[in-house]
């Protein structure tokens, strides 16, 4: 994958808050192109030249935004979890215990990933990269996932809530890695998350 790493001499990428409206639009088109290519062909199908062509931008423009295709895919994962957060905010679970509500929300996320297995595997694989941009995106992904559960666990002490959400994030990621590597079925992901919710949250409801 000769086009997957930052070319020598490429410019330092600005933060998204520093971008103009036009630059943000191009960045969004690049992420949407990564979604499209990843959904069709998985990780190997997301080549930077193909992303550039699909998004109708110059190849150099990609590298002004993303250091590698792993960084691009990790940014796509950030976008995906942000959309999940927004959907939950507009349609939160209203019935059941906190444990049941958390299981429902995480179940929605798992169902969305299961419907796009090639894309989901590509996103999970990218998050395993040591690329500095990926590390930042990973932090944003964890923040989005945590915010999904903030309202559900609002009755808990803030430190306890943060600990529970952090552990749930780790369980989700590790089970997704096992699935993406072919070591388990996707049912294992949902089973592990449900078990973690019951172990971590249910004791605080008694």
UniProtKB/TrEMBL annotation:
SUPFAM superfamilies: Homeodomain-like. InterPro entries: Homeodomain-like_sf, HTH-type_TetR-like_transc_reg, HTH_TetR, KstR_C. It comes from the Bacteria. Keywords: DNA-binding. One of its GO terms (molecular function) is DNA-binding transcription factor activity. The keyword DNA-binding applies. Gene3D superfamilies: Tetracycline Repressor, domain 2. Pfam families: TetR_C_20, TetR_N. Residues 1-21 are annotated as: Disordered. Residues 47-66 bind DNA. The keyword DNA-binding applies. Residues 24-84 form the HTH tetR-type domain. PANTHER family: HTH-TYPE TRANSCRIPTIONAL REGULATOR RUTR, HTH-TYPE TRANSCRIPTIONAL REPRESSOR KSTR. This is TetR family transcriptional regulator.
């Amino acid at each position: 994958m000769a086009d997957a790493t930052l070319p020598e001499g490429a410019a330092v990428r600005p933060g998204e808050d520093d971008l103009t409206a036009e630059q943000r639009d191009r960045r969004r088109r690049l992420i949407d192109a990564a979604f499209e290519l990843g959904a069709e062909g998985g990780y190997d199908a997301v080549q930077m030249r193909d992303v550039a062509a699909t998004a109708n931008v110059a190849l150099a423009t990609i590298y002004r935004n993303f250091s590698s295709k792993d960084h691009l895919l990790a940014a796509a994962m950030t976008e995906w979890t942000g959309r999940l957060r927004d959907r939950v905010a507009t349609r939160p679970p209203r019935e059941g215990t906190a444990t049941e509500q958390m299981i429902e929300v995480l179940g929605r996320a798992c169902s969305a990933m299961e419907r796009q297995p090639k894309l989901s595997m590509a996103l999970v694989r990218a998050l395993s990269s040591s690329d500095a941009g990926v590390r930042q995106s990973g932090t944003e992904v964890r923040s989005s996932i945590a915010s999904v559960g903030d309202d559900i666990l609002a009755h808990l002490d803030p430190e306890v809530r943060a600990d529970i959400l952090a552990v749930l994030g780790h369980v989700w990621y590790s089970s997704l890695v096992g699935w993406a590597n072919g070591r388990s079925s996707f049912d294992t992901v949902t089973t592990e998350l449900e078990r973690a919710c019951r172990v971590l949250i249910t004791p605080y409801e008694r």
